[in-house]
Amino acid sequence: MTIPGTALIIGARGGIGRAAAGTLLRHGWRVRGLVRGTAPGGASHPPPIEWVVGNAMDSAAVMAAARGADAVIHAVNPPGYRHWDRLVMPMLENSIAAAQAADARLVLPGTVYNFGPDAGCAPDEDAPQNPLTRKGGIRVAMERRLHDAARGGLRALIVRTGDFFGPGAGNNWFSQGLLGNGRPVRALTDPGRPGVGHQWAYLPDVAETIARLLAREEALERMARFHMAGHWDPDGRHMIAAIRQALGDPDMRVRRFPWWLVGLIAPAVPFCRELHEMRYLWRTGLRLGNARLLGLLGSEPHTRLDIAVHATLQALDAFPQEALPRHA
């Protein structure tokens, strides 16, 4: 069992970064957060975090922030989720260089977007990666770069999951796809095909999994890769039902997601083009298996769905003012 040391989180104000910070603190790690702009303050950002102001595109800033770190969590995304093609790889290169200089384990939260339909319905960690989306292609390039760096001495850890949901999850299918933009929520949108399953990952569970894996450093391969099972919705109806139950409206209206409209304007709007490329994940039941993770940890951190959904909705201010929370 590895004694907790110092973890640098690049993108510590994002969804997975914030969840990882809180979880690692609970596990006894010293946490350093690299953030753009000014250092955060207030109750939502625990004082034990050592905040470092810097840009993930600034190699010197990342190198300085990683000095003395035992783990580097690469949880950063381009500002506003724009310009992935220009920003993602340079940011990853800076994290790789900093982790190598500090002899730290570099952690990359991965996604299911690496896999296309040819990977089958239950791809394992070694399944072929032929994504249909542009961002999926970038994700594959990121992982290939980590593999190359591992051959040069880097220690890396990739944890792939389904679609994120949870407090602070940012841009995701749960908040923007299922719930839409209205707050409080009055109706839901279903992007899936009836009867087709979909995989979800609750951010606190992902952060806990990363923390437990880092605690097993001596058992990790130099290039370690794991899949999380997360929450599997077998027919596309369980998540909708959990949201309805949490909101106290079992008959809340559910609309079909307007894929036809997204496809119509996709050629002219880059965001809609990327959105339409992800349609296959809602029409094909692609489910990551966690056998390798269970083989090492024995179990996967798993928050009950009703509790996870309630916490997510509460963080999104999705409840009507008259509704009272039913979970702590």
Q: What would a concise description of this structure say?
A:
This protein has 328 residues and is of the alpha/beta class. It has 12 helices and 12 strands. The longest helix has 19 residues.
Characterize the structure shown.
Pfam families: Epimerase (PF01370). It comes from Nguyenibacter vanlangensis. This is NAD-dependent epimerase/dehydratase family protein. The chain has a domain at 6-169 and 198-232 and 287-302: NAD(P)-binding Rossmann-like Domain (Rossmann fold). Strand 1 (6-10), helix 1 and strand 2 form a beta-alpha-beta unit. It is globular, with a radius of gyration of 19 Å. Helices cover 37% and strands 17% of the residues. The chain is of the alpha/beta class. It has helices at 15-26, 59-65, 84-102, 134-151, 173-178, 203-214, 238-247, 259-265, 270-277, 280-283, 291-297, 305-315, and strands at residues 6-10, 30-35, 50-53, 71-74, 105-111, 155-161, 163-165, 188-190, 198-202, 223-227, 231-233, 254-256. The strands form three sheets. The chain has a seven-stranded parallel β-sheet with strand order 3-2-1-4-5-6-10, with helices on both faces.
